[in-house]
């Protein structure tokens, strides 16, 4: 097996460029498909099919692949996802491993926040830089309706713990769902702004395990902007400094607000992301119909080059766009919790 522990040049020897010329520098790594909530837009309410624990990549395996992709392929950002990543035991140990990788510029995590009260300080000390926290509502009743569990106060306590822990950035994300989000927008924005955080609204995507998504359920970015104008008055767009970032940011009154139009105005042309699932497969898009598994090779003594070939094979299969708006669109077989956000 090749030695994958040595530091390498800052110039990648195997940049991840797809057939449309998109350079991939951002990696999402799912560490588990398990979650302590059962959100309607993601998971079934009862008996979700989770991976057996021995099918999950170990921290050592994750570190090896991440180190390869940073040092040889030019990955510069890693985000840890799930499921709910904080249910993975001793996650701070993985964070410490990843944060030590030379040339990695950004290490972040997406969470529902419920377990942050216990883990925020530990994660920050291990080297985690930023957090994205899901917060769809400030109403306990609506929280239970969406998540089919209790836990709003735990999420709010987790947000407070994260603020105290001193992360460089904390963003709050809400899925924009018609019939739910309209009444939440103002309170969410004021809550986020009052805590020096950015509130972002993400158009509801067809990634639910129940296959109940319908286009009419999507509260569009344009509709959100109209609500913001009606409620706050002036709206000023903020010029993007990084075109690969999906969020369009606006100054709404004195508040900074982000909108991600993943359905009505897809940003596939600037996509720089790839994903590794918790069970060891490379996915080039949330909506990809296929993936390239490398776990068996990884556990069978494959060389670094052979592992990278699996990643490159996935990148070369990447479509021009996710195709949600095509008449032939079919959602992926894996629901969101089994892909990693």
Outline the structure in words.
The protein is an alpha/beta fold. The chain has one domain (26-339): Aldolase class I (TIM Barrel), CATH 3.20.20. The chain is built from ten helices and twelve strands. The protein has helices spanning 59-73, 91-99, 116-126, 140-147, 152-165, 185-194, 221-232, 295-299, 304-316, 336-339, and strands at 26-30, 77-81, 106-111, 130-134, 169-176, 198-203, 235-238, 248-252, 255-260, 273-276, 281-283, 292-293. A twelve-stranded mixed β-sheet has the order 7-8-9-6-5-4-3-2-1-10-11-12. Helix 1 (59-73) packs parallel to helix 2 (91-99), helix 2 (91-99) packs parallel to helix 3 (116-126) and helix 3 (116-126) packs parallel to helix 5 (152-165). The longest helix has 15 residues, at 59-73. The radius of gyration is 19 Å and the shape is globular. 43% of the residues are buried.
Compact summary:
The chain has 10 helices and 12 strands. It has one domain: Alpha-Beta Barrel (TIM Barrel), CATH 3.20.20.
Topology:
Layout (H helix, E strand, L loop, with lengths): L25 E5 L28 H15 L3 E5 L9 H9 L6 E6 L4 H11 L3 E5 L5 H8 L4 H14 L3 E8 L8 H10 L3 E6 L17 H12 L2 E4 L9 E5 L2 E6 L12 E4 L4 E3 L8 E2 L1 H5 L4 H13 L19 H4 L2
Parallel strand pairs: 1-2, 1-10, 2-3, 3-4, 4-5, 5-6, 6-9
Antiparallel strand pairs: 7-8, 8-9, 10-11, 11-12
Helix pairs in contact: 1-2, 2-3, 3-5
């Amino acid at each position: 097996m090749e030695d994958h522990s040595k530091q390498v040049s800052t110039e990648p020897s195997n940049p991840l460029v797809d057939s449309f010329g998109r350079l991939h520098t951002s990696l999402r790594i799912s560490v588990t498909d398990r979650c302590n909530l059962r959100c309607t837009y993601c998971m079934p309410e009862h008996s979700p099919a989770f991976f057996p624990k021995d099918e999950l990549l170990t921290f050592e395996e994750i570190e090896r692949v991440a180190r390869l992709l940073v040092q040889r392929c030019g990955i510069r950002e890693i985000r840890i996802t799930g499921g709910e990543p904080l249910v993975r035991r001793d996650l701070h140990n993985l964070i410490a491993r990843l944060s030590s990788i030379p040339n990695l510029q950004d290490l972040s995590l997406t969470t529902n926040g419920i377990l942050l009260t216990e883990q925020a300080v530990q994660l920050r000390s291990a080297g985690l830089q930023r957090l994205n926290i899901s917060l769809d509502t400030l109403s306990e009743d609506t929280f239970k309706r969406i998540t089919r569990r209790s836990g709003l106060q735990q999420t709010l306590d987790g947000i407070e713990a994260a603020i105290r822990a001193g992360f460089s950035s904390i963003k709050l994300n809400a899925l924009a769902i018609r019939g739910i989000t309209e009444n939440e927008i103002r309170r969410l924005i004021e809550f986020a702004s009052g805590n020096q955080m950015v509130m972002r609204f993400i158009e509801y995507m067809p990634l639910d395990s129940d296959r109940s998504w319908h286009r009419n359920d999507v509260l569009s970015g344009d509709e959100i902007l109209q609500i913001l104008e009606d409620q706050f008055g002036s709206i000023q767009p903020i010029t993007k400094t990084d075109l690969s970032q999906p969020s369009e940011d606006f100054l709404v009154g004195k508040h900074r607000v982000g909108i991600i139009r993943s359905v009505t105005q897809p940003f596939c042309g600037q996509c720089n992301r790839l994903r590794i699932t918790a069970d060891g497969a490379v996915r080039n898009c949330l909506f990809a119909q296929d993936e390239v598994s490398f776990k068996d090779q990884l556990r069978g003594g494959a060389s670094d080059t052979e592992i990278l070939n699996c990643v490159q094979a996935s990148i070369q299969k990447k479509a021009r766009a996710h195709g949600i708006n095509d008449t032939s669109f079919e959602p992926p077989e894996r629901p969101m919790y089994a892909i990693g956000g």
